[in-house]
């Protein structure tokens, strides 16, 4: 997040004190809003333009929350990259790039503009639509599941180091799912993401040392891998499969579908999260089929420009 004391852009009625900005593009969108790019756009009432948008979140002079949608994606990309590097960047979009000024915030922010009232929704008379609000992540569901997948992708090494190749006996069912060896507890979750822990390798419930994993976990993995394979033959909505940078020659793959998320490295294993298994992360070993599936998904995935 980037808190800027002086940045301001004009909304319809007042200046906006910028708190942060995020991209909304096919390759990079807040996954908490949806399983794919069109679904994330629909959450904001926006058409899924091919080039995407930049979302500028801030407060007006009265402290009201506003989300300014702009079509200058490059400007927001530069701002976000600068803030991520700890550099100052004054985000001041040209008024001609403003697509819409939407009341409320679609994401939860822990910062506020100095010198104005505490963040609140605009008064009803100043709105043309209900204010945006973040998805409910207080209970396990699709939003929590996607946040959990985000967490694994961003802290891959901390999750991966808790599993050894010996935790994945050679599969006999073609899924690549591992056996029943227990693994240590996972790192703590942050920012309200899923309180998920690595399960027993393959399909166990969260927690260390639990054995004899329920068959339902294996069935869930089979279903996810089958639906992911179907994406190769029938491309899903834009953004359902995304590929991003990873160390070495690998790529980080993220795929989502109805009730599931998959995070993988193209040279390594995968992790699966399911709506039907609250707070659990199911590791999937390389096996015989996973490498080819990950390669095929990477070829058809959306990549950052």
From TrEMBL:
Which residue intervals are annotated with compositional bias (Low complexity) in the record? 192-203
Task: From the UniProt entry, list the residue stretches annotated as the region Disordered.
Answer: 116-141, 164-220
- Protein name stated in the entry: Integral membrane protein
The source organism is Streptomyces ziwulingensis
Taxon lineage? Bacteria, Bacillati, Actinomycetota, Actinomycetes, Kitasatosporales
